[in-house]
Amino acid sequence: MAAVDPARPGAPPTGATGTGTARSALKGIGRSRFVLGMVLAVALPPAVEVLVTVAGYRNFSIIMLLHLAVAVAVAAIGGIWPAVVAAVLGTTLLNYFSADPVGSLSIADPSTLFTLLVFLAVACSVALAVGLATRRAEEAARSGAEARALSELSLRILSSDGSLETFLEKVRSRLAVDAVTLLAGSGPSAPSGQRGTGSAAGSRPGRGKGSTTDWNVVASAGTSPPVTHAAADHAVVVDSQYTLLINGGPPAGQPFSGQHQRMLGAFGAFLVAILERRQLVASMQDNQRLTEGNKMRTSILRAVSHDLRTPLAGIKLAVSSLRQENVRFSPEDERELLATIEDSADRLDHLIGNLLDMSRITADSVNPLLRGLGWADVLPDALRGLPAGRIRVELPPNLPQVEADAGMLERVVANLVENAIKYAPEADVVLTARAGEGISLGGRPASEFRVVDQGAGVAPAAVLDMFRPFQRLNDSQRTDGGRNVGIGLGLAVANGFTEAMGGTLAAEPTPGGGLTMVVTLPLWEGPLP
Predict the structure, then answer these.
(1) Could you give the 3-state DSSP secondary structure of residue 140?
(2) pLDDT score of 251 more than 70
(3) ∠ Cα 275 277 281 (to 5°)
(4) Residue 107 in contact with residue 99, Cβ under 8 Å?
């Protein structure tokens, strides 16, 4: 974290501030306490002399101890220099009012002079010790406050949403400034401020000679945050790429206090950690997408090598047979060969459609066109080509419309019904729906569509695996006369489309055996057609 640079021209060099012993004392004690200590150093010694004079008490030793107590008290309040003033003034008053000859600064007895010099040395030494101890106590208290502030900030950051805006708002409130802006440099040159050192007056990160850095606003917090270096009161170089612009705090051209500079250094470290965490998360997500894409391509190649070649082989065999000129087929045989071609073509169309849909879902390129739809509106197209004798539609009348995409909802219903027919070959598939109290999705009222079969069912441990691409029940189950039932994309596509429409797809055991697939979609809240 670099030092704070004045963002406006005409500011004094940051390295020149805080020099001199008096300025160091002010940093340790504070200006108000220093001034109060000076006032007491001037007022208390005369007050002691007035009190002892009014009381008629002239014991030299006791009065000297009272002045020593005054010097110690002033040191505890105002620091070293007010205590030295109190000690010198107390010595002078002792000499004038209590040492012979009284009423004169001359000293008749050499032992009295020695006593006064010892008193001055002791008073200054005690004041020095007390002042240093007070400064150390103040510094320890400030360090403890900084540590508590940083600990609290760390806990808040860990428990927050991790956004840069949230972090910058915490920085703004902790520093008590008006606004904070994070800039990112996008050029080849780095900010000109040197890390860990003060920069010259009026220097601006990224504005040095020959600089080609372009600054972009990453995040901001506060009222009217600055977006350029010229509009900011202070600029803080976080690292070679990022800079904080601050409005408020010390007057423009004056640096932050040492405490705030240390806190800014810690804030910079947190900021870099947040940015690196965001980059790491983005990289992990990219790697995960690449991994999923590779798995998808591998699975597609496997599907093409086996499942897609089966209907192609059937079509090729039937067409080759029909084209043989030296073989005459009966009308029944021709109809059977044509039916084989049609069935294989339908299977091929369905497999390719699922592959393309799964590719769209994996690439996050599914954009549903949501509108109000009734469950019954998509059934005619969804059930086309499926055995009507195996399907019982038991939808209640006057169901409210759901928010869905017509094409996606049709594919969801078609895949669920086809899957139920394949894995429950000896029982009918029942389609029901309901809406009303107790059915909600994300706080919105919703409706459920159920596909109920009385097949073998699925073990609870295998429910999650059903929704994975290229996953078939038991991964080796064969039905329909020993043919493979598909490439295991139906439920994955149905689940992907349902989630894209803002709904959920779940599996429940059917009472008495079997599986029930439940599609839940929010109710349509727009105007009715």
Answers:
(1) helix
(2) yes
(3) 120
(4) yes
